[in-house]
Amino acid sequence: MNAITTSTLDVRAQIIDAFNFRHATKVFDADRKVDDETFATILEAGRLSPTSFGHEPFRILLVQSPEKRELLRAFSWGANGMMSGTSGQLGTASHFGIILASTAATMTAGSEYLVDHYRHVKHLPEDIIDVFNGAYGKFQRIDHDITTDREITDWSGKQAYIVLANMITAGALLGVDSCPIEGFDMAQTTDTLGAHFGVDTSQWKPAVMFAFGYRAKEPEFPKSRRTMEDVVAWF
Ligand SMILES: Cc1cc2nc3c(=O)[nH]c(=O)nc-3n(C[C@H](O)[C@H](O)[C@H](O)COP(=O)(O)O)c2cc1C
């Protein structure tokens, strides 16, 4: 059994403090940048995130050029400040990005991409690769019935949200503010990624956007949540 030490209590307090500190930041202080080492730590938390079967069906696109950010403004209503009468997260965030989700082109069981991933990223022996192909194939076709391109891309998107959650929490622990963003038009974002960001949209679709930086002001409303009893059941 783990002894409860002073440092355990400190870490518990730090975690809860970080979760209370975090809020969905609408407007950042445009003059404050997250330093490179701090942002590298946030990215590392994303990269090291767990993914189903270890497939890592995501990529992180950072959009730092103001011109490139503006290409997203018209259809990214959750990030363009239309609700706050500001230039929004797009105009003020120190770091802005999009997490892409893999499509069926690569995430279908037995695909060339996955076999290459098992071989060269996970360093699995050939007989284990056969086991993975079989197990993932059954998971896809039978256990979860994920077979269409949309279903497979959405499954990849679920993994992308875990990545983002870890980045956000890492940020909060470091005193960095953030906002998850899914207020955007999926079709127009996909087209823009293809036309202006060199994304092969047959292989990658946008899952979720994010912004990091330092809050311009404190949140307007205190955090409100359902009670623990409402959201947790013990058996
Ligand atoms: C997946 C996801 C997408 C979100 N999309 C947006 C968005 O597009 N724009 C925005 O300002 N906030 C967005 N939010 C923030 C939520 O509205 C916010 O987390 C929620 O109201 C709770 O408030 P809090 O995060 O400040 O505690 C999003 C949150 C999540 C988890």
Automatic annotation (TrEMBL):
Any GO molecular function: oxidoreductase activity
Cofactor(s) of this protein: FMN
Record-linked CDD domains: NfsB-like
Residue ranges annotated for the Nitroreductase domain, each copy included: 22-77, 148-214
Transmembrane segments: none
UniProt superkingdom: Bacteria
Pfam families: Nitroreductase (PF00881)
Keyword NADP in record: yes
SUPFAM superfamilies documented for this protein: FMN-dependent nitroreductase-like (SSF55469)
Keyword terms of this UniProt record: Flavoprotein, FMN, NADP, Oxidoreductase
InterPro entries xref list: NfsB-like, Nitroreductase, Nitroreductase-like
Range of residues in the leader sequence: none
Keyword NADP on entry: yes
Classification via PANTHER family: NAD(P)H NITROREDUCTASE YDGI-RELATED, NITROREDUCTASE
Family membership noted in the UniProt record: Belongs to the nitroreductase family.
The protein's name in its UniProt record: Nitroreductase domain-containing protein
